[in-house]
């Protein structure tokens, strides 16, 4: 069956079968969003019915939305902080999730000055990967040529810590970039980067930016897209180029590498 006939959608015709599959999924999930959300809630309640938190309300094996809304209170992060702290300290019992907590995702800390810890499970990384995979098929409907050339995207990891119980605590993008989902990702023409993984994963912000900028400038004739996850990251890159263009051009012209880049993995891949 032809690609343009497998999808009847107001979004428009997909560019290929892979895009068609992604767009079909979006249509299926959003056409009856209320039904889908109720089903997902029921699955969550069924899976986690024996957790300490839900058992606290003594509602048996309820899975319907009306019972959930009427009996489970709306809470804040502070209400769950004692349970989160127990997990952070090493308690591995089923407190909030029937699945083992694999790590903590951290908030930016910009609103209250202190990063919040959000427990997560390995399965959640699969859902994040699925979400990321839906972006380009939609964009490709409106911006042609996204599968051509390379993208100079400035991607960075941030610092991570360990809780007293030994679980990692790090921002969501750092968690993703350090996962096998990213490091061993299959070839995708929509996401061909000039930045080597080693440069993206370098924890030193100067070395990471320098290597990514250098590789992007060196492959400039293939670069058709420039971007960053946050607008502030792109502004940082422009400012960095303004401050370091002389050294960058010297390195490209001479085939050398700034001695300030000392990370052996970054030096090897740059």
* Helix-strand sequence: HHHHHEEHHEEEHHHHEHH
Find the count of extended strands (DSSP E, 2+ residues): 6
Kindly report how far apart the N and C termini lie: 44 Å
**Biggest sheet architecture:** 4 strands, mixed
Q: What share of residues is helical?
A: 40-55%
Radius of gyration: 23 Å
**Average of per-residue pLDDT values:** 91
Helices, by number, come to 13
- The helix/strand class is alpha/beta
How much of the polypeptide forms β-strand, as a percent range?
5-15%
Low-confidence stretches: 1-9
Please list the strands of the largest sheet in the order they lie side by side.
2-1-5-4
Overall, the morphology is globular
Notes on the structure:
- Helix content is 49%, strand content 9%.
- The protein is of the alpha/beta class.
- The strands form 2 sheets. Strands 2-1-5-4 form a 4-stranded mixed sheet. The protein has a two-stranded parallel sheet with strand order 3-6.
- The two termini are 44 Å apart.
- GO terms for molecular function: acid-amino acid ligase activity.
